[in-house]
Write a structure and sequence with these properties.
By secondary structure, this protein is an alpha/beta fold. The protein has helices at residues 2-52, 59-75, 81-101, 143-149, 155-168, 172-180, 183-188, 196-202, 232-241, 243-250, 296-312, 332-338, 357-375, and strands at residues 111-112, 116-118, 123-125, 132-133, 217-218, 254-265, 268-278, 283-290, 322-327, 345-351.
């Protein structure tokens, strides 16, 4: 009886501890969300005030300077001219986005933000109604996330990163890295042109093996220099050392299983460099690393690996295995000639540096333009 009581107490303590931790996380999230809506409301108020004096040169700048001086004196740090200007930009960007979508958010009517600041610690306190307006976007990220998103002029690109940040729970650092690595452009250029708009509306969808491919795969976080010699073993070890970053770059649904996974056929042993599982596609993903020029022998070897997994490893409920040859440079003609159709094997280039974002943006614009012209 005493033993059961101890066990019950332990379970009670664990449950209460978990509840408190969850409550703290939710409180931080709630405060961050309130701050975002507050800044949006402040941006709206500033613009509405400016519009009353729009015929007077420099009226807006003077208003923000005066407002910054007053708020800083009353509430302390955080109310600089730069920050207030960003709030104004925040409202302009996302209110315009609502107009472009021509929709009203389900939470956007008669929304009230009962917020008050305490001067001493700059803390939030919930009080009675202080401001009310309609047609407000639904914000799910922190203000730090939106500071990054506001730098993106292309609305479709911005929508994509916002959706992915929310769905994948990206940190600010992860979002910044994905934007700097041109994830949107790399995914768009790896897809059927008809699917590009889906990135802006739905984010990255994983429905078939080709959906996990992006060219190039950007591995700048490994710290390897492209102009220096390194071995496939060093490349593999660098990936293992930065596995979390590598999983982020691979994309949605990837789980790591093993490195140098051995299987035997006859009297020979074979080793797959990296073995992953994608829970969205419900299949194994085998990755072989190649730092030299891709050959037909490399493709044939990966075909054997994939065949072995399909015939000896996967269960009847799992989908066919995917093979990826991660290489510096691929030869599409060689791949097409060597592999049978629907082989489920892909050659994917990698880069050890961040791609030229402007160059990719230009290429994507040209690609979309050509597609639209051909459709007419």
């Amino acid at each position: 009886m005493k033993k059961e009581l101890v066990l019950d107490n332990k379970k009670l303590i664990q449950n209460i501890e978990a509840l408190i931790i969850k409550a703290k996380v939710n409180t931080v999230t709630a405060v961050n969300t309130v701050m975002v809506y507050t800044y949006y409301a402040i941006g709206k108020m500033i613009i509405e005030h400016e519009q009353q004096g729009k015929n007077r040169a420099g009226y807006g700048e003077a208003t923000i300077k005066k407002l910054s001086h007053y708020l800083t004196k009353k509430f302390g740090k955080g109310w600089t001219v730069e920050n207030l200007t960003l709030m104004r930009k925040f409202f302009k960007s996302y209110s315009q986005s609502l107009l472009n979508k021509n929709i009203k958010n389900s939470n956007s009517v008669n929304t009230v933000y009962p917020i008050e600041y305490h001067n001493k610690n700059n803390n939030l306190k919930f009080v009675n109604t202080v401001y009310e307006f309609k047609n407000i976007p639904k914000f799910t990220l922190s203000w730090s996330h939106y500071l990054i998103l506001m730098r993106i002029d292309n609305e479709q690109e911005r929508n994509f990163y916002e959706i992915e940040s929310s769905k994948q729970n990206w940190s600010v650092r992860q979002l910044s890295r994905q934007v700097n690595s041109s994830l949107y452009e790399r995914l768009a250029l790896s897809r059927n042109k008809k699917k590009i708009l889906e990135l802006a509306n739905k984010g990255q969808t994983i429905e078939k093996p080709a959906d996990i491919i992006k060219n190039p795969l950007t591995l700048e976080f490994l710290g390897l220099k492209s102009d220096s010699s390194y071995t496939e073993t060093k490349l593999e070890q660098a990936i293992i050392n930065k596995l979390q970053d590598f999983l982020l770059e691979l994309g949605k649904g990837f789980l790591f299983e093993a490195r140098q996974k051995r299987f035997s056929f006859g009297e020979q042993n074979f080793y797959v460099d990296l073995v992953f599982y994608n829970r969205l596609l419900q299949c194994y993903v085998l990755i072989d690393l190649k730092i030299d020029k891709l050959t037909h022998q490399d493709l044939g070897q990966m075909q054997m690996y994939v065949n072995y997994y399909d015939r000896n490893v996967i269960t009847e409920n799992e989908k066919p295995t995917i093979g990826i040859l991660l290489c510096k440079e691929k030869n599409d003609a060689l791949i097409k000639l060597t592999l049978p159709k629907n082989s489920n094997i892909y050659a994917q280039e990698y880069a050890l540096y961040l791609p030229d974002k402007k160059l990719l943006q230009k290429k994507l614009k040209e690609w979309i333009k050509d597609f639209k012209e051909n459709e007419q």
